[in-house]
Design a protein that fits this description.
The chain is α/β, with parallel strands linked by helices. α1 crosses α9, α2 packs across α4 and α3 runs parallel beside α5. The radius of gyration is 17 Å and the shape is globular. The protein binds cytidine-5'-monophosphate (C5P).
Length: 225
């Protein structure tokens, strides 16, 4: 019998990573950051002298690509990300990768390869996965599906503090908000597995909620499974 699967979907900056990581730790579930996988492929393409829109060149690169996600040993340490044995934990979080990731994640060959890898992680259950299409496409039979959102203004503020923590200075909040809206539009309007709330997902709007409150809500829903 497989263990439960928890799917956490939602737009950029809704707090998915922080919340998912903490819930994984507290419930003893395997944490799967699917966005990190799309970011890693984007990084690889950008470092391979091919343009992100060259679908056949991207398809060649992504075929059989090896992505390893190695959990940090405290909840504060990020998961270490490797692609084809190269460590890219920090490199996949730059604004340049962020600006190109939607063009990569819209491509059929990329999604086919990565969704397969994600489903392999989940065969035995006991996993909490965050992304855009987890509840709709990767794990449509997940026992618990959460759709985390917040207003674009709130999400931009959270991204700003993430970036500041990474050492970026002089970031324009309005511009950041614009970029977030643009990325969500691309992710929501692509042909394959767009960002969308699954019919059976529970929506949590996080604007006025603390991280603790969101975590407790998810843990409560999980304990009622
Ligand atoms: O969650 P994060 O911001 O790291 O995701 C980066 C990008 O990866 C998203 O903007 C989206 O284009 C893509 N993505 C996706 N499907 C997922 C997870 C992420 O298309 N399940």
């Amino acid at each position: 019998l497989r263990q439960p699967i928890v799917a956490i979907d939602g737009p950029a900056g809704a707090g998915k990573s922080t919340v998912t990581r903490r819930v994984a730790k507290e419930l003893g579930l395997l944490y799967l950051d699917t966005g990190a996988m799309y970011r890693a492929v984007t990084w690889l393409v950008m470092n391979s002298q091919i343009v992100v829109d060259d679908e056949s060149a991207v398809a060649k690169i992504v075929k059989g690509v090896k992505i390893d996600l190695i959990p940090g040993n405290t909840p504060h340490l990020p998961v270490e990300v490797y692609i084809n044995q190269q460590e890219v934990t920090q490199a996949i979080r730059t604004p340049e990768v962020t600006a190109n990731v939607s063009a990569i994640s819209a491509q059929a060959a990329v999604r086919k390869e990565l969704v397969q890898a994600q489903q392999n992680y989940g065969v035995e259950g006991g996993i909490i996965a965050e992304g855009r299409d987890i509840g709709t496409n990767v794990f449509p039979d997940a026992e618990l599906k959460i759709f985390l959102t917040a207003s674009p203004q709130e999400r931009a503020k959270r991204r700003l503090s993430d970036l500041q923590n990474q050492g970026y200075k002089d970031i324009n909040l309005k511009q950041l908000e614009q970029e977030i809206i643009e990325r969500d539009n691309k992710d929501s309007n692509r042909a394959i597995a767009p960002l969308k709330k699954a019919d059976d997902a529970i929506e949590i709007i996080t604007d006025r909620l603390s991280i603790e409150e969101v975590i407790n809500k998810i843990k409560e829903l999980y304990s009622n499974l």
